[in-house]
Amino acid sequence: GVEGGFQSDQEKYDTISTYSIVLIGKGTDISPSSVVLAELPYNDNTKNDFPTTVSQSADSIIHHSGLAVQQDLSAWELDTEPKPVSKYAENNLPFVDNGIKVSPTPSDWKCEKSGDNQNLWLNLSDGFIGGGRKNWDGSGGSNGALDHFMETGEKYPLVVKLGTITEDISTADCYSYAKDEDGPVKIPNLKQLLEKRGIMVAGMQKTVKSTAELEVELNATYAFDAITEKGANLIPVAGPGLQGLQNLGNSCYMNSVAQMLFSGPIAELSSRYGASDDGVTSNSLLEVSPTSASNDLLCQATKLSSALTSGLFCGPVPDSAEVSDSSSSDPKYRVAPRMFKHVVGHDHVDFKTGQQQDAAQYFQYLLEKLDRAELGAGDRLKSKDGSDSVLTTSHLFSYKTESRLVCETDQRIKYKESPAETMLSLRIPMSKATTPDIEMPDLKKQKSEESGEEEKEKKVIPTVTFEACLDEWSASTTIDDLRWPHLQNSISSATSRSRFVNFPRYLLVHMQRYEIGADWQPRKIEVNIDVPEEISLQELKGTGPQEGEKLVPEEAEGGGEVASAPAAPTIDEGALGQLMDMGFTMNGCKRALTAVGGSNVEAAMNWVFEHSTDPDFNDPLPEGGTGTQESTPSDSGVDEGVVMSLVDNLGCFTADQVRAAVKHCAGAADRAADWLFSHMDDLDGAIAALESSATSGASSEPKSKTPLEDGVGKYSLVGLVSHIGKNTGSGHYVAHLKKDGKWVIFNDEKLALSQDPPIKHAYMYLFQRNDTVGSPHPAY
User: Fold this and answer.
1) What's the CA gap between 284 and 374, in Å, rounded?
2) Is residue 252 annotated as part of the catalytic site, yes or no?
3) pTM of the entire structure?
C-alpha cells in the first residue's frame, strides 16, 4: 500500500508532546466541576524533582503501549521472522559474580562509558550498563554496550533493554551480540538472570519504547509516492462523506473497501452505521461497555462510518492537490481506522498482518463478519421499518443464479438455484479483445504499469467490452460425463447456462484481471475493459421451467441430484503427485490423467501442453460422487458434491472439516475454503465452536427468512476500486466514488474531484439498481 497519492508530500507538522503533573481538587457546591490546583511541567529536566513513585508512574503512562500500538506490533512481528530462543541463554551464558546490583530507580541508570541516560542496555553476564548501537549517521545510542562486548573478548553476548522489563517478561527487549545470532532473541530464563542483579520484575513498569515499537514508528513515517491521474489539475474536496483515511501500512485495500461501503454511496449502510442528525455519538450501536468496545465490530463500524459521513474530522481544503500545503498531516484531521482493522482481521490468517491483501477477498470476508455481528446484536439493532427480522448488510448485495442443464440423451431439463452470492466474478475473454488503430490521431499510446522501459511506451493495450465479459459468463457450455439418475445413473453429456434469479439492490462486479503466467506465477492481464456507466441485465433474468419443457422427473431428483462422474479409470495418486510436483494445478493434472487413462505421466504431460490454454483447464472435474448428495442426513443441510469437490481440490482437509465449513458458509464453496484456511491454527477448536453455537441455538452464519430483493435489472455505476501493481498481494488500491453526480478519487488521505476516473482499469465495480436511486431500503 502506498501512503500519499498525488505527490511526495512532505510532512508539514512536527508533533511536539509536552507533559505536566496536575493536582486536581474536588469541586464545591457552588462550582461542582473539578479545579486544577497546580500544574507542574514534567520532562527530563524536572522529573528528578518529583518523588520516585510519581515519576515512575508518569513514565509508565507516557510509554504505555495502547491497543493501536499493540496491533501495529503484532502486524510487524507477523511480517518478520519470529525471534529465536538464544542458545546462550540457559547453559552457555557465563555469569560474573562481581556483586553488581542494579538500582530499581530508573534515574540512577547511566551508560558506564558515556554517562548517557537514554537507550540503555544491561549485560546479563557482568551487569555492565551501556548505551545502544550508534547508527551510521551518528544517531542512536552511545554504542557503549556493543563496545563492552567487544572489549571483553565477545564472551558476554546477551543484553536486555532497561525500561522494557515488566511482569510480562516476554515483552522485554532482548538482544544477542554473538556473531552467529546478532539480533533480537528470546531469553526464557530472563527473570532468574535479572534477579541475580537485584532486579525483581514484580511491579516493574515499562518506561521506554522497545526496538520493535521504534521500528514500527519509522515504518509508518516512511515516505511513499504513488501518483494517480498524474498531471491533472485536481481540485481537493472535504466535508461529509469526503473524509480521507490514514494508510496504516499496506492498508489501502481496506481503506478503499471501507470508503465504498461506509462513506455514503450505499445509503442503507450510512443510515445504519453513519452519523445521525443528533450527532456522531447518538447511534445505539455505540452503546457498549468500554472493555468490549475494541472487539465489537458493530461499534467500530459505526465509529468509522460516523467519522466518514459527519465531516467533523475534515481539515481545511488545500488550494490544489498538486501543492504540498495539505492539512492531512495535522494529527487532529487524520482518521486512522486501527480499531476497525483489528476487529475485522484479528482472527484471519492474512488480514491480521501488515501485508497487502486482495480487496475483493476482504470485501466478502467483511460482509460475512458484519452479517454475523448484526444477527447477534439483539436489541442494539432493530429494523427501522418495524419488522421483526433484521436485514443484514449482505442482503443488499445478494443474488442467486439459476443453472439450466439439458441432458443430451433425452433433452430433459434440470433447473437448479445456487446459494446466494454477493459478488459477480467475471472472466475476461481475451479472444474477444480488439486493438485500436494505432494510426488514429486521437489515440493515446498507453504505458504499461509493469515497466518504465522506453519500448513499453509504444505498447497499445487491447480492449474487451463489458458485454463480452457478461456473454462469457452467461454462454452455454458443454459438460461431459454427467450421471443422470432418471436414466438409471447412465452417463450423458449436457449443456448448461446461468441466469440471474434476482437482481440485487447493489451489484458488485469483480473482474478477473489476474491469471497464471507461463512461469506459473500470477500476472496481471494488460487489458482495458469498456464498461458503460449504465447497464441492463434484464435479458439475463432466469425464467424457470417453461411450458412445453420436459423436466427431469421429480422422483429421479429425489434419488440423487444430477451429478457428474468421471467415466475414465481411477486416477493414480502417484502419477497425480508427479504432475503436481512439476507446478501444475490439481484440477489440470486430474483432467490430463483422466484423458490418458489415469496413470501415464508422459502422456498426461503432452496433454497438458496441448490443453493448458483451455478455458476449463483449472476447473474441477465433474465428480461421480455428487449423485449421493441428497442421501446426506437431513440435519446436515449441505451439498455433498460441493464437499467432495473441496476435499479433492484443497487436499489438506477431511470431509467432516469441509462439511462443517460449507454448512457455516451457507453452501458457498469459495467462502468455505477461505474459512478453512483462516482457521488452520486451531481448526478442530473452531469447528467445535461452530457446533456449540448451533447446539445453543445461536446462528454462526446469516440465515434470513426474508426473500432476496428483486427489481428491473438496469444499473448505474456508482463506485470503482482500482489496483496498481503486478498482483493483488502488492501495489496499491484506490477508490473512485460518485458523489452528487461527480466522481471523487479516494486515495487514502488524498481526496479530489476526478477528471478521468479509471473505469476501464478498475478491479471492482459497484452498480446501483436504477429503481432504488433516491429510495433507500426503509429497514436499514
Assistant:
1) 13
2) yes
3) 0.60
